Predict the structure of Polyprenyl synthetase family protein.
Amino acid sequence: MKTLKNEFEEYLQSTLQKDIPSKTREAMNYSLMNGGKRVRPMILFALLQDAGVDPHSGFSCAGAIEMIHTYSLIHDDLPCMDDDDLRRGHPTCHKAFSEAIAVLAGDALLTKAFEIVLESDASDLQKVKLVKSLSECAGINGMILGQDLDMQTENHPLTSFDELKRIEIYKTGMLLSLPMRCACVLSQQEEHIEAWSQIGILLGIQFQIQDDILDKTQTSEVLGKSTSDEKNDKATAISLLGLQKASKIVLDLEQKIKDQLNQIPGDHDCFQQILNYLIQRKY
């Protein structure tokens, strides 16, 4: 996986090189290549390997997913949203460039995502299905809805964990489901899309609660990002449940993910490695 990740980094770097040089392209490259964990691409590659498909065939799709994820982070960090100064150990895009350039960089990454999928070697039918998944998971009924619900909490603070969970289903879960859906399309195993989507949703909730725990127990320097929720007085799993109960829910979700995984036929060794890494992560 390490070799594959290095190859993917080279591919990702190359995707912006043919575009006309501009300040926006510079900001896109700055945010896209500044040391992300590449969780979603690694999930896609692991599922392809488990299905006996060359993971390199998923590079275009993984690049698109990473561009969408990066655009969402650029916009999430803006002063009009979470107003963060640090992302992946570096100044956020609007701090390194300007607010206007950051908005354009996010917009450009989103549109670039669809371009590289349509230029891929996938069949025409697969491209249609991939674009549909990208649109659904990133759009108004996906990640954008999660952001919308999150922003509404500024005027209507959350009072229950169920409300927070609904936000994370869309804000985090949909983009973690996306590489799973795309892997099903590329490996011609679309009968399992719903089952994998449910794993993605559960993993999204678990991932975000774990983030809340890390924000409380680790420093900004270790995490490589601002821990702005407490500063912004935003409700988190910790503020709503306490550290002990939140930690227990993480373990409960881990078991639910494993139970769901056991219901899907086939070998899941590569995905299990990624899952173990995500569950055990400390930053």
Summary: The longest helix spans residues 161-186. The chain has one domain: 2-280. The CA atoms of residues 77 and 84 lie 5 Å apart.
